[in-house]
Amino acid sequence: RHCRLRSWRQRRRRTPGSPLSRPSLRASWRREPGNAPPYVDDFLLFAATRALALSLRQRVDRLLTNLGLLRHPSKGFWEPTQYGHHLGIDIDTASGYFFAPVEKLQKLARQARHLLQRATRNCRWLPVKELQSFAGQAQYLFLAIPAARFFLRELHSVLGDKWGGRVRLSPQLSRDLQWWTQVPSHANGKNIHRPVESAYIHCDSSGYGWGAVLNGRLEARGFWGIQDEQQHITWKELKAVRLAVLSFLPHLAGRNVLLHEDNQAVCHVLTGLTSRSPEMMNELRRLWYRIGVPRDGPSGPTSLVPSRAAARTRYSRQASLARHCIPDSLPAWLYLRRGAVSATLTLSAVNGFFKDHGAEPVAQGELVAKVRRGLAASQVSLQPSRTRLYLPARILVSSLRLAKDLRTQLTDTWTQAQAELILLFRACLATVLLATFFCRGGAGVECRSGDLLCTPTGGILLYHGTRKGQRGTSTERKLLCELPASAHPDMAKLLQYFDAARTRFSAGKIPDRRWAISVREPTTNWTADTLTAWLQRVLCAVHEQPPDGFAWTSHSLRKGAATAAYSIGTPMQKIKFFGGWARESDVVLDYIDPTVLPCPGAWQLFGWMTPGGPPPNVTRQSATDGISEPQHSLNG
């Protein structure tokens, strides 16, 4: 709106036909060089030059003075600038782009990661209120991120008319939230000015087929299949646009394209990047992902601008345009790219390409069977995989006894000569303690020194640390579970000795990782394989090996702990709580072998979790001395 700075009373006193009546006022606004779009009590003044901006500032100051209003000196931008923040959006008139603030994008990324992690823990169930809050904050950035509506459509479909409770996370919504976790690195920025098109496409569809023309000379056409003929004409028009773009992809790379389309609904879908129709939205996604990863920014956008005869609607996006061509010899092409991993992807790509161009898929039936048979004949498994088995409780008891023996051999001040004993002591202690906490992620290699602590009374506390999939999320520190002092007093003493000795070994500095021996030990590449290596070191020391055809890995600690606790009658809710399984989830049943009988080792490690405690004839000393447990068919 072009604003002529007059007081409201002056405008109101004018009669129709006066110089400031409504028609003449609008005409005078058009002649003003300044532009002042208002929003409630927020105003933003635009001017072509700095001198004009200073002149407008003086007029605004006089107007506020005449109205008896006082401007707050610390609010707003009183000096002319080419980069400002207005109504939550950064405006850069020098480069000609709207931007979303980095702080808001980082906040949205953290919320998206939090939602994905919460869905993982709760069987894909999420609170409606949290999704609504995320949708409101993300929808607001549409002016700077045109793709916001596109990646929020599935969220609105999942929410529906619900205002409370929980909803199930759909696979598409999971993919959209994953996109929001990476918003700070792409898709931020939208053109303020109208882009200049360097190519144009005329596209139309009918009940029998579709056709398109690029720049008035290149043509593309096709006929609808039996299933496509039964679809709505709006869906056909949108698919015709997608097929036209795919047909002209080699000629559209790096260009702004003006699309002439006579269907108003298709122009609305392409402009807003959203549709309530699931079929239309699926077709729009196929167009979106086939063109490439979207990004609007100062790096030279490639845009597809839909247009109608009466009005133009437009949006901008950057496309990574790739060339698509049908190979001259399909079997030879598949042979050159064959591989057990890439065969399925290759065949799917071939089918998708033929479907997009109105042809029947060729990579199916006998062709697929031949390719698979050829791959099976040409590949040999170099190392047959072994079945992962739970770790028996008796091995954990032996590891604890070995850790006690090593403690008597080690001095209070570690030296380089004791390196092998220190590494073995660390492996034994970590193996037993992780099994006691059911090898949950918070106690593993990602555990920090402040997340696993000993109490003055001899208990062990496990706090919320870096969980699986939450490395980039900042969460509040809270207590996850506690191991009572009466459960394993010897284990708490060993942990206290380990902390004191490694602190002295690091010259008074506490290593960041809980299981690091010194601050100089590299821990950035620690994974689950690291725990498996520690477990193998312990197994060699206690002279234990898994049965033929089976393997003991770090995951065997989790399976062994759940199996041992279940064998002695530990309530399932306690097992889920200490193991970090969701209360409504039945995944814990996959970790339990119900055929395993109770044994002294299980009573020693997990007997304190049972309602009545260990029986009188099973003492901790007897288990420590190595009372043999009943043999099982798989543990030898």
From TrEMBL:
Annotated stretches, region: Disordered: 1-31, 613-636
GO molecular function list: DNA binding
Name of the protein this chain belongs to: Tyr recombinase domain-containing protein
Domain of life: Eukaryota
GO biological process: DNA integration; DNA recombination
Species in which this protein is naturally found: Tetraselmis chuii
Stretches with biased composition (Polar residues): 618-636
Segment forming the signal sequence: none
Biased segments, Basic residues type: 1-15
Keyword annotations: DNA recombination
